[in-house]
Amino acid sequence: MTERISLPGRAEPLEIDPPGWAAGYPPPVSRRAYAAAHVAARPEAGGGVSINWESTMRFRDHLWAHGFSIAEAMDTAQRGMGLSWDQARELITRSASRAAERRATGQQAGLACGAGTDQLAEGRSYPLREIIDAYAEQLAFVQAAGSDVILMASRALAASARTPRGYLHVYETLLAQASRPVILHWLGEAFDPALHGYWGSTDFDSAADTVLELIERAGGMVDGVKLSVLDAGKEMALRRRLPAGVRLYTGDDFNYAELIRGDEHGHSDALLGAFAAVTAPAAGALHALDNGDIAGYDVMMNATLPLSRLIFEEPTYYYKAGVAFLAWLNGFQPHFAMIGGLEAKRPTEHLIRVFELAAAAGALTDPALAVSRMSELLATRAAFS
Fold it and tell me: CA-to-CA distance for 322 and 381, rounded, in angstroms?
């Protein structure tokens, strides 16, 4: 049934047809695909919020059911923007337990969790030994939970390491403690300004040299590099320089369609916050790619790009609001609420456009519910404007 809604700024009501996606999809075989998942929040009396664990886990079931592995406790889950290390520990424990339960019943539940240094207070530099110890604590915790590891970019390391040698020392020490290959996390400053000059250089090629040197020294303990610099040319250049068997996981939420599709020189795998926003259409596109339907892949995945580019527009680090907004519209959490009130960082006009582009991408999986909740949001925000 077609749903209709009148939106501010539109001369005619927006019409939304049921998107027609399957209820679930098998894990893709031609690409490895991680969705970085957010944390659902619950408003509390007095104006605070708490983590809604039921909704948070339900959303992970949704991602797994659509064939995605989950990148847990990453920046999408507000690491460094409201989610403390203590809360991240509980999130990792709960997700690892949920994944084990699914695997015990024969369901797929790929999981890799972020290990960083966010138990260290910000605003100061640290001896590299303290940074290594902080990383090692989190690395050991993630491994003990039974999860694969993503070594997250560290604000403390960015503030403390003066040369590429410092980065190499820290990461080599950690890789020696890893029980199986890890994913390296290279997050550009658009996502976190505190990571300016990561890997010891503001020049991309020089930073890439350091990453490649680390991989060469690592003795097979690097599964891949998750790159989020929002520059397709730089990603393809690094991808072509990686040794055989080391994956490039695109984190480019602007250009992922062409990067995952690939060219005669290869393709990127994916670790994307965008997949938590465009779950069903992206799963459908990857399924088409597995079946050799390149044209179908292009149509479905390219249709999600305007939405993703809007969600990740500057200031890019507020993209989490768009992910949570769509999860609410699609019924995966009862409130559009975020830790630290982050939902308020995007204006109503931005959310209206997200709604419109989500409809165009087929990312509103229950149009009637989405229309009802969008009408509620517009009425509430109008009342307080």
Answer: 16
How many structural domains are present in the chain? 1
Coil vs helix vs strand at 17: coil
Tell me whether residue 261 is in a domain: yes
- List of residues 6+ apart from 184 with CB closer than 8 A: 150, 151, 171, 211, 214, 215, 222, 224, 225, 226
- DSSP character for 199? G
164, part of any domain: yes
Reported as a single tens digit per residue, the pLDDT across 122-171 is: 989 999 999 999 999 999 999 999 999 999 999 999 999 989 999 999 99
For residue 315, whether the previous peptide bond is cis, meaning omega lies within 30 degrees of 0, is: yes
Residue 343 falls inside a structural domain? no
For helices 164-175 and 204-217, the axis angle rounded to 10 degrees is 30
Looking at residue 83, which CATH number applies to its domain?
Answer: 3.20.20.70
User: Residue 384's pLDDT band (boundaries 50, 70, 90)?
Assistant: low
Question: Is 313 contained in some domain?
Answer: yes
The pTM assigned to this predicted structure is 0.97
Range of the domain at 274: 32-40+48-320
Given a contact cutoff of 8 angstroms between Cβ atoms, the answer to whether 193 and 159 are in contact is no
Do 265 and 23 meet the contact criterion of CB atoms below 8 Å apart? no
pLDDT digits (tens, 9 = 90+) for 168-202: 999 999 999 999 999 999 999 999 999 999 999 99
